[in-house]
Amino acid sequence: MTRDLYARHRAVLPDWLALYYEDPLEITHGEGRHVWDTAGNKYLDFFGGILTTMTAHALPEVTKAVAEQAGRIVHSSTLYLNRPMVELAERVARLSGIPDARVFFTTSGTEANDTALLLATAHRRSNAILAMRNSYHGRSFSAVGITGNRGWSPTSLSPLQTFYVHGGVRTRGPYAHLDDRDFIDACVADLKDLLGHTRAPAALIAEPVQGVGGFTSPPDGLYAAFREVLHERGILWISDEVQTGWGRTGEHFWGWQAHARSGPPDIVTFAKGIGNGMSVGGVVARAEIMNCLDANSISTFGGTQVTMAAGLANLSYLLEHDLQGNARRVGGLLIERLRSVAAQVPHVREVRGRGLMIGVELTRPGTDEAAPDAASTVLEEARAGGLLVGKGGGHSTSVLRIAPPMSLTVAEAEEGAAILERALRSI
Length: 427
Fold this sequence. Notes:
Blueprint: H1 2-12, E1 27-31, E2 34-37, E3 42-45, H2 48-51, H3 60-70, H4 83-96, E4 101-106, H5 109-124, E5 128-132, H6 141-146, E6 161-165, H7 180-195, E7 203-206, H8 222-232, E8 236-240, E9 267-270, E10 281-286, H9 287-290, H10 305-320, H11 323-342, E11 348-354, E12 357-362, H12 372-384, E13 387-388, E14 390-392, E15 398-402, H13 410-425
Parallel strand pairs: 3-13, 5-6, 5-7, 7-8, 8-9
Antiparallel strand pairs: 1-2, 2-3, 4-10, 9-10, 11-12, 12-15, 14-15
């Protein structure tokens, strides 16, 4: 059945629509932190639909909210008042940390970043954008134009003029040998030098932890230091929280809060986890920025009632059950467990991460050269052992990406680590 579906997939869908595994997997249903395939095999899910299943599969509170809302009305567009959208916007605005915040809902993180770029360029009257090397911001034309990861940038054509800044990757690049303080100083000096060669950019867009790039991050405080330089010149700071938001990093509710010394970002984008699998994204910005557009705009599907009901129920569950605290506690245990394994596996260059957002970088033993074949081997072996993980990396890196639902238990973390240990030792 799976082979037949794969043949049909190949016949009607794009060649560039990637699938994991030599024998692609069809997931039929899930519950908690587990999913099942068509053959009835059960897997511990350590990737959550690319970080979208934030709380749990088939979470009763969310499925009930979706069913009840669908029984009333599914959709009406933003041309009409929408109570669930207003209620979720009120909660997100309060949680954002941005003063006088306004919220606009979209259907994805790509569209959220598109909207942030529209707002920033319109507000600043500039089409120049600063972005981080190794970054990823989505698959639309404008988002691809600012993505600093060649593996996910299929065209050099773009409506934006993009300049790439150092700092998103701590352990590679020309400043990797420096200590944290000197690393930040060097990156700030690079930013200042770059600004001396360009027209005033509209904004810097940055992921506090780079997702597709392999869960890399700078030292705490880098973006606060950048913010001081940007603020002096009126340049906006967009924090792309599509993967880091809602407490996944454990230490903070938003990734930008590790860089909060100079105040909050001007714009925050979010998506993925808030909908727990439903298609929800959005932008939070100060009112003066959000309201700067001088033409009409609506969203046909952004903020639709059924997805807003899911978001409200999911956010309530996350806050009431302190899943941020769980991510900090269980994620910390999982990171230490994986580091103890890594010390005995020559292919592992580094285990890094925060909370339940963990990267295991693989290289050819004794070098800094990427080992994509090893990453593929581990992916296959982990699946054979009953565990699903992701892959990522940029600029000749190969990284296993681990981001289970934030309700992961200690026992499940230990189970997953044991399976991953066997997979890593099989390289």
